[in-house]
Amino acid sequence: MIKALKNIKLILVFLLTLMSKTDLAQKSKDSLVNYPITSIDVKLLTGFWQTTDSLKTKIEFIDSTWYQLILDLKDNSHPYFFIKDKQDKVSSSGFYPNWPPFSCDLNLIDPETLEISFSQIEVHTYTIKCKKIR
Prior knowledge:
It contains two helices and ten strands, in the order αβαβββββββββ. By secondary structure, the chain is of the alpha+beta class.
Protein backbone atom coordinates (compact mmCIF):
# COMPACT_ATOMS: atom_id res chain seq x y z
CA MET A 1 0.00 0.00 0.00
CA ILE A 2 2.75 2.47 0.96
CA LYS A 3 4.71 1.59 -2.19
CA ALA A 4 1.63 2.33 -4.32
CA LEU A 5 1.23 5.76 -2.64
CA LYS A 6 4.88 6.57 -3.34
CA ASN A 7 4.39 5.69 -7.02
CA ILE A 8 1.29 7.90 -7.23
CA LYS A 9 3.23 10.78 -5.59
CA LEU A 10 6.04 10.34 -8.09
CA ILE A 11 3.62 10.37 -11.03
CA LEU A 12 1.88 13.50 -9.72
CA VAL A 13 5.17 15.35 -9.25
CA PHE A 14 6.22 14.40 -12.79
CA LEU A 15 2.90 15.58 -14.27
CA LEU A 16 2.96 18.88 -12.36
CA THR A 17 6.53 19.55 -13.47
CA LEU A 18 5.66 18.76 -17.07
CA MET A 19 2.60 21.05 -16.97
CA SER A 20 4.55 23.98 -15.50
CA LYS A 21 7.26 23.68 -18.21
CA THR A 22 4.62 23.62 -20.96
CA ASP A 23 2.89 26.68 -19.52
CA LEU A 24 6.18 28.59 -19.33
CA ALA A 25 7.12 27.67 -22.91
CA GLN A 26 3.76 28.86 -24.20
CA LYS A 27 4.05 32.25 -22.48
CA SER A 28 7.55 32.76 -23.91
CA LYS A 29 6.47 31.76 -27.41
CA ASP A 30 3.66 34.31 -27.45
CA SER A 31 6.05 37.17 -26.74
CA LEU A 32 8.69 36.28 -29.36
CA VAL A 33 7.01 37.74 -32.42
CA ASN A 34 6.72 41.51 -32.07
CA TYR A 35 6.59 42.43 -35.75
CA PRO A 36 4.37 41.50 -38.66
CA ILE A 37 5.74 38.74 -40.89
CA THR A 38 4.89 39.30 -44.54
CA SER A 39 5.83 37.82 -47.91
CA ILE A 40 8.00 39.63 -50.44
CA ASP A 41 8.45 38.79 -54.12
CA VAL A 42 11.93 37.33 -54.70
CA LYS A 43 12.38 39.37 -57.89
CA LEU A 44 12.07 42.61 -55.89
CA LEU A 45 14.91 41.60 -53.56
CA THR A 46 17.35 39.70 -55.80
CA GLY A 47 20.45 41.65 -56.75
CA PHE A 48 22.66 44.33 -55.22
CA TRP A 49 21.64 46.95 -52.67
CA GLN A 50 23.65 49.75 -51.07
CA THR A 51 23.27 51.19 -47.59
CA THR A 52 22.22 54.83 -47.40
CA ASP A 53 24.68 55.66 -44.62
CA SER A 54 28.08 57.24 -45.22
CA LEU A 55 29.77 53.83 -45.62
CA LYS A 56 27.72 52.97 -48.76
CA THR A 57 28.18 49.24 -48.05
CA LYS A 58 27.02 46.86 -50.78
CA ILE A 59 24.92 43.81 -49.93
CA GLU A 60 23.46 41.16 -52.19
CA PHE A 61 20.38 38.97 -52.19
CA ILE A 62 21.14 35.69 -53.98
CA ASP A 63 18.39 33.42 -55.29
CA SER A 64 20.34 30.25 -54.53
CA THR A 65 17.91 27.37 -54.95
CA TRP A 66 14.25 26.59 -55.23
CA TYR A 67 13.67 27.01 -51.48
CA GLN A 68 15.81 29.87 -50.16
CA LEU A 69 17.09 33.39 -50.73
CA ILE A 70 20.45 34.32 -49.19
CA LEU A 71 21.41 37.76 -47.86
CA ASP A 72 25.18 38.21 -48.31
CA LEU A 73 26.35 41.21 -46.29
CA LYS A 74 29.76 41.28 -48.07
CA ASP A 75 31.58 42.21 -44.84
CA ASN A 76 32.81 38.73 -43.92
CA SER A 77 29.89 38.19 -41.56
CA HIS A 78 27.60 35.22 -41.81
CA PRO A 79 24.78 35.11 -44.38
CA TYR A 80 21.08 35.16 -43.53
CA PHE A 81 18.58 32.78 -45.08
CA PHE A 82 14.99 33.47 -46.13
CA ILE A 83 12.64 30.60 -46.97
CA LYS A 84 10.85 30.75 -50.33
CA ASP A 85 7.41 29.39 -51.12
CA LYS A 86 6.00 27.96 -54.37
CA GLN A 87 4.83 31.41 -55.54
CA ASP A 88 8.45 32.70 -55.47
CA LYS A 89 7.90 34.81 -52.38
CA VAL A 90 10.07 34.89 -49.26
CA SER A 91 9.20 35.45 -45.65
CA SER A 92 10.22 38.88 -44.40
CA SER A 93 11.82 37.14 -41.41
CA GLY A 94 15.18 35.46 -42.05
CA PHE A 95 17.65 33.60 -39.88
CA TYR A 96 21.20 32.44 -39.39
CA PRO A 97 21.44 28.92 -37.91
CA ASN A 98 23.13 29.49 -34.57
CA TRP A 99 22.32 29.28 -30.88
CA PRO A 100 21.14 31.68 -29.70
CA PRO A 101 19.58 32.42 -33.08
CA PHE A 102 20.24 35.56 -35.09
CA SER A 103 17.24 37.10 -36.83
CA CYS A 104 16.97 39.42 -39.80
CA ASP A 105 13.72 41.20 -40.66
CA LEU A 106 12.99 42.92 -43.96
CA ASN A 107 10.71 45.89 -44.49
CA LEU A 108 10.35 46.66 -48.19
CA ILE A 109 9.26 50.29 -48.11
CA ASP A 110 9.04 50.50 -51.91
CA PRO A 111 10.73 48.54 -54.77
CA GLU A 112 13.83 50.75 -54.41
CA THR A 113 14.05 51.12 -50.60
CA LEU A 114 14.57 48.41 -47.99
CA GLU A 115 15.03 48.44 -44.21
CA ILE A 116 16.88 45.50 -42.68
CA SER A 117 16.73 44.96 -38.90
CA PHE A 118 19.07 42.58 -37.11
CA SER A 119 18.37 41.06 -33.70
CA GLN A 120 19.16 38.17 -31.42
CA ILE A 121 16.40 36.69 -29.21
CA GLU A 122 14.21 39.78 -28.92
CA VAL A 123 17.19 42.14 -28.57
CA HIS A 124 17.32 44.55 -31.50
CA THR A 125 20.94 45.19 -32.44
CA TYR A 126 20.74 47.58 -35.42
CA THR A 127 18.82 48.57 -38.55
CA ILE A 128 20.19 49.56 -41.95
CA LYS A 129 18.40 51.29 -44.79
CA CYS A 130 19.31 50.34 -48.37
CA LYS A 131 18.66 51.52 -51.93
CA LYS A 132 18.50 49.14 -54.91
CA ILE A 133 21.47 49.33 -57.31
CA ARG A 134 20.46 48.98 -60.96
